[in-house]
Amino acid sequence: MDVLRLRQLLEGVQTGRVSLDEALRELTDLPFADLGYAMVDHHRALRQGTPEVIFGLGKTPEQIVGIAQELARTGQNVLITRLDPEKAVAVTQALSLLRYHELARTATWEQAPIEPLGKLPVALVCAGTADIPVAEECAETLRLLGIRIERLYDVGVAGIHRLLNRRELFNHVSLAIVVAGMEGALPSVVGGLVAIPVIAVPTSVGYGAAFGGVTALACMLTSCASGVTVCNINNGFGAAFAAARILRMTRS
């Protein structure tokens, strides 16, 4: 249940369209539903503005389906992250309304209107083609959060002219999410060019000394561009939610 649905319910009771008993039955879903293997947080949309998100890694297809059905039962949109293609086959067979995005490894079940968040889009900047899966996880999450996106892909520092050629893009966005592997230098470059917030996402892309993204993470954490915010390795989802928190406060 989100703020809009709660308001509709209370207004229904006030005008007599909804009986007190009907309202009480709907409110019994709050704050959570105990499925035995999961405690589905129906109160999260009221607290944070968005429903609980299902992290698919480590869960069985049956568990994912059960949680998704419980979220959808109350009219909420469903987002599943880190859903590998093999597991997605079983999940989408059980949930015919689920839409799978293989590159992003996400699945969505949209049944409620998505309220736009922010007046300006977010720049989603990606260093290399190999980083795109992390960027697309971010993109799908941003979309479900109601945030418009301007993609700027394959503009890493090995060919910095590609980024500089599109520099004007940053004059028309609210913030930038910058996804990069290897040495992770791109967020520092963007952070030195713009005044808007920059959220950096290191990826595990790179050769041996990249240490599965640790080198990029350390580089971003020690960025010489002041104020760059850094998320965990491959965490495009987390970057999207960080952007949403900023936009809710600034309403930009």
Automatic annotation (TrEMBL):
PANTHER family: PHOSPHORIBOSYLAMINOIMIDAZOLE CARBOXYLASE-RELATED, SLL1489 PROTEIN. It comes from Nitrospira moscoviensis. GO terms for biological process: 'de novo' IMP biosynthetic process. Residues 120-252 form the PurE domain. GO terms for molecular function: hydrolase activity. InterPro entries: P2CMN_synthase_LarB, PurE_dom. Pfam families: AIRC. SMART domains: AIRC. This is PurE domain-containing protein.
